[in-house]
Structure formats: C-alpha cells, structure tokens
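Tutorial, part two.
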Amino acid sequence: MFSNYFKIAFRNLWRNGVFSVINIVGLALGVACSLLIGLWVEDELAMDNYHAKSPVLYRIMQSQTFNGETNAGPHTPGMLSYELKKKFPEVVHASGFTWETDLNFTVGDKFNKQKARWAGEDWFKMFSIPLLAGTPATALKAPESMAISRKMADNYFGSPQNALGKTVEVAGRDIPYKVTAVFEDLPAQASEKYDFLLTWEDFRKRNNWVEQWGNNGPRVYFELRPDANTANVEKRLKKFLNNYRKEEYPNTLFMQRLSESYLYNDWRGGTQNGGRIEYVRLFSVVAVFILLIACINFMNLATARSERRSREVGVRKVMGAVRESLIGQFLAESFLITALAVLVAIGLVELVMPNFNELTEKQLVLSYTQPSTYLILLGVTLLTGLVAGSYPAFYLSGFNPARVLKGRLKFSRGSKLFRQGLVVFQFTLSILLIVGTIIIYRQVSFIQNKNLGYDRENLIYIPMEGELSTKYRTIHQQLLHMPGIQSISTINQVPGEFGSNTTGVNWPGKDPESRPLFEATGIGYDGLKTLGIKLLSGREFSEKYATDSAAFLINREAAALMGYKDPVGKPITFWDRPGTIIGLVDEFHFHSLHEQIRPLILRLDAGWSTSYYGAMMVRTQPGQTQQAIASLESICKQANPKFPFTYRFADVEYGKLYRSEQVMGTLAKVFAGLGIFISCLGLLGLAAFTAEQRTKEIGIRKVLGASVFSVISLLSKDFVKLVGIAFLLASPVAWWALGDYLDKFYYHVNLDWWVFVGAGLLALLVALLTVSSQAFRAATVNPVKSLKSE
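Running the prediction step on this input gives:
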C-alpha cells in the first residue's frame, strides 16, 4: 500500500512539474535556513559546556556602586583567588585569569606573536583541557613555568614531548621561561582563547597593583564541592571584600555559573539583562518562522491545485477509497516533496557553509558521521512533511464525491479565512523582518559614520614592546622625517579599549561622601593632535613645561562633575599626587556606543609606569598609508629586531567593537529576503487559487467589456487588504522588539514612523508584483476557453 502511495506521488510530481519545483524550492530554502541557524544555535549553547566539572564551576562577579549608579562585571581584585581558597572550605580550586595579550614568543631564531594569558596553578585541575605533556599539579606552579598549546609545540619544537622542559624567552624579558606542560588545542566551543599560559606569580611580579585590594582587573574562576550549599557561599561572598578594606565597601561579590557566562554576559544596573542569549532566542524563533512560512507556502500551493485534485478525490471515493487512505496518499506526497527538499537543503547548506562560517567566525560542519545528524534530518523531514501536508491532506480528502463529480465544488467561508490568515501570518513575519533589517542597517550605519570626537581615519596603532619604549625618543625623531608620517604620540590604552578607572580623584569642594568614577589613561606629547581630539580651552602636554608631569587634561563630563565651568588652572589630586588642570578636551568616545561618555582624566605618560604597555599612535598623510607603513617597518625592525613588526588600523579596531551587530545585520538581511521570497511563493499559490475559482467570472466580465487592468485590480484588491492587516499586526510588535534592541546602545537612531511605513509599502509592492503576474495571466485568457463548458 505504501509503495503505491509513493508511486502515485511521483506521478503527480512529474505531471505538475512547475508546482512541484516551487514547492521543493520553497521548502528547501526554509529547511536550509533552519539547519544553518540550528547549527549556529547549537554551537552557541555548547560554549564552555565541554568541561566535565561544568555543574560546579563558577566565576566571581562584582557589583560596584558609584554615586548611585550600579554596574556589574567579572573584574575583581588580583589576590581574590588566593583568599577564596583560604576562607571558603567549599572551594576546591580557584584561579585568577587575565585578559588576552599578544606577547612575543622566542625560541632560538624563531619568534612570533602568540596570544597569552596568566592563570593560577589550579587552572588545569578545574577545566577539561587535556595535557599531552606535563601534569595539572606542576603545569603552572613554579613562577617561570608556562603551558603551551599543541600547535605551538609542533611549530617551535616539533612535538609536545620535545617541548617539555625547553626554555623560551617571552616579551623580551631577561628571565627564561620553562615549558612545563603542553595542552591540547582549545576546542571551538571555548570562549576564552589563548596559545599559552603563564603563572599567576609571574603576573604579580609584572604588576605591583595586583597586591592592592582597591584595584580590579583579573577574573576569578573557582570550583565548588559538589555538596556545597551555593546559597550560603554566595551570602558570605556578598560582603567579603569588607574584610580587606578599612572603610565600609559598597561593592559586593556574587557568583555566576561558568556555563552561563558566555550567553548571559550583559549586566545593567548590577542585574542580569540578557546578552548573547537574546540572539540565540531571536534566531531560534526566526528559524521556526521561516520554516513555518515555507510550510504555509506548501499549503497554499496545494490548495490552489484543489480543483484539479477534487475530481481525482471524487473518483477514488466512488471506487471505494476511504478517507484515511486518501489522507495517507496526500501525506505521502507531502513527505516525498519534503524529503526531496531536505536533500536540496543539504546541498544548499554545504554550498553556503564556508561563507556562513566566515561571517559568523565559527567552524560549523554538518557531520555525516554522527548518528544524531541523521536523526535530526529525519525529524525535520517528518515534522515538516506533517505540518506542510496535514491541512491539504485533511482538506482535500473531505470533498463530497457527488458534488465534485457534478462540478458543484464550493469552498466554505471558513476555509477561505484560514487561507487568508496564512497569508497575513506570512506577511506579518516578513514585515517584521524588513523593519528589523532596516533598523539594524541604520544603527550599524550610524555607528560607522558617527563623529567619535577623534579621527580614526589614517591612524595606526603599534604596540610598544621590547626596545620601542626605551628608544621611543630616537624613533620619534626619525619617523617624523620619513615619507607618509604626519604626527606621532603614545597612549596607554587606545580608544575602544579603555579599561582603567578610579575613584582616586579629589578637588576642592568635593563631597567627602561621594565616590565618582573616572576613566583614566596616560597619553604622550602631541597625543591630542595625533588622535584628532579638539581642545576646548587651555593646552595639551608639551616638553616646554617641566611641570606637566603633575598636569592633567579632563573632558567636559569631568569638568561638569567637578563643578568647574572653566577648569583650566584649577587644582586637582590624582592618586594622591597634587596637580593642575591644564586643558579641557571635547567629548570623544573612548568606549563603544553602547556606553555613555564618562568623566575622563588624561595624564602625561612619562614617568608613570616602570614598563610601558600601551601603543605608539601614528597619524599618516592621507593617501600615503603604504609609504608610512614601509617607513614604520624599516625603523621598528632596526630598533627592535627581536620582535615582529605589527600594527593595527584604528578604523578596523573600531569596527571590531560592533562585530556582533554587523553579523546580525547581515543575517537579518538574508533572512528578510528569504522570508519575503518564500511568502511570495505562498501568495502566488493563493493568487492562482483565486484566479482558478473565478475563471468563469473573469470570462463573463471580459465579454461584458471589462479591461485587463480592471480584472487585475479586481483580483489584487483583496491581497492589498491582507498586507494591510499584516502591517497593522507587525508594527506594534516591531516597535516593541526593536525599541528593546536600540536600548542596548546609549547612542542610537530613532524609531521613525517612516521605517514602518516604508517596510509596509515594500511588502505591498512585492505582493502586488507577485499577484499582478498571476492576475495578468488570468485576465488575458480568451473568455471563450473559460466559458466553453457553459
């Protein structure tokens, strides 16, 4: 019986080739989109979940309140990991962990930049990172120990076994480091990437501020005993920092599961406010909606062919076929079409996968060696086939054979409303996607064109490492006479990467109870000129003034906070160092546009740190970037031969701050286009159905003198109403959803009314073009053919 179902199904597919191709293409696009999104969602949900101890792994979060404003983040005091193990018996292991840093790695005559971090000796005891050489207990124990990846071991030493015990030079330091462990390359599901790890003791030696409990920066990860009372631990953590501060400390600590730290990474007002999990939810819904649109398209096309299939149903019923067998027949056709669509979808996924991976910066694959892949594909086929084919199967199998064979087939008002409802649903989703795409595109465009207060064009950053800092004055003089160079300066933290802030600022008249937070960084001579920052009053740092070592520049937000209308010449104390404000700078964005511009203090770089860790900034002549890079490479290689010459463009670094928004915007455009295309296929089906139902009416109207335009208008006006209803349903939903999206940016575009109207008009235009093509075809049919049966 089942073989007969599929035999007849193949014949019907072949006989109705055009409808079959449209069905298969529509379903294939829907399935392909859903598979791609499903792979992306699966990868996102798997981030940091590969650790065997994942249920008992946490990181410490700190909530900080300054002048009534509360913020939360993972940055904590550098000694916290040590104290957790001492004071909390529930803590089995704990480790500090730093931000990613590019350090020069030298073995003999081989040297290159590698991504480094510092971690505590418990790191490999907590996490499921296999060691190919060495042991978890000794990997990061001795101060000059290091653990490197398999890839580094192969590149520098030939194999992990050969690497063990070898000494290397890191970042030009005189102290040699010893390879005490080689770990397996980190999986794609690791959110924190690094090529090698140095010890926490080494980090303490490099940074004396780590010993001070008032400074924050590193992260802390820890492992709890399986039987630990987490509520009790978190309660004791809350005011834990008060034990290490003389005054009452308003900052509090709390815990976050490691498995949630990647997806739930947005904290506002000290509380959890989503994060990447919102993208996961959004695109999961988009995947379901696109698949539903494709299924609705199938339903509408099947309904459009109902009159042709009605006589088939009538004859089968007269010959003794029961309704169940007819349902089985139509479902078999649906499953067959879906199976073919899934095969086409697999081909589409494989075709676009490289581009999709490049866009999302992932390594997704549709694995054919995993049984789960086939179970998923089978599940998609069965579910899609059932959803797409259920309505046509039950609808067509319910025809009355007597009426059908007498040519009296009529469709109820309920079935008409149901089909129209499907079209409204499709276009509601399509308009949502269009509005979302427009808003995301406008926001990304706003970000790219926003006046940041500094000029990121023709600006290059070069890391100050090795001998570049000690030879900077000589290099500076040499480069100023090289082709393509306009100006040069230094800065501790480049815009977009500011991470140093402090409450250690005082001025006359300050409320002793207030704790305002200031951003702070060091900048060199000609820093404002090189960055292109506008000076509102006063002057910038100059070698002509020896007193500038105790001078400061502030921005307008800092001046307003201090209550200074004209701050130049006013006294200020920074980190217990008295000084004077010598200049007021205009607003410039040193963080992303997600954040408000905050009070800023710029100090002169010279003499403030024992080891420079910032960047040399080079402003190039417009149109002479390549000449400038060649000049920089020549001078830097000569002055710093043990380090590879590396540089970054300021505009590229700025773009990286909004990589997620750019990816989401591109995906939104693609999905919006596919949603509209698939919706139009469904609309085409309904238009064909309507024209088929009104064939004789059209013939009569033409005989009575109706023009082709009037017939097209007659068939199109109902669909205009459907798109209008879809617009009314989509607009408030889009307003709410996109308002929430834009709220994540402190600086953003407005939700203008014309965006919604434009999206509605675009959907209407596409719908009219789709319907008009079918209406024109029906209107130009010779009325003799449509009326000859009368």
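Residues 323-360 form the longest helix (38 residues). In part three we will examine how such features are distributed along the chain.
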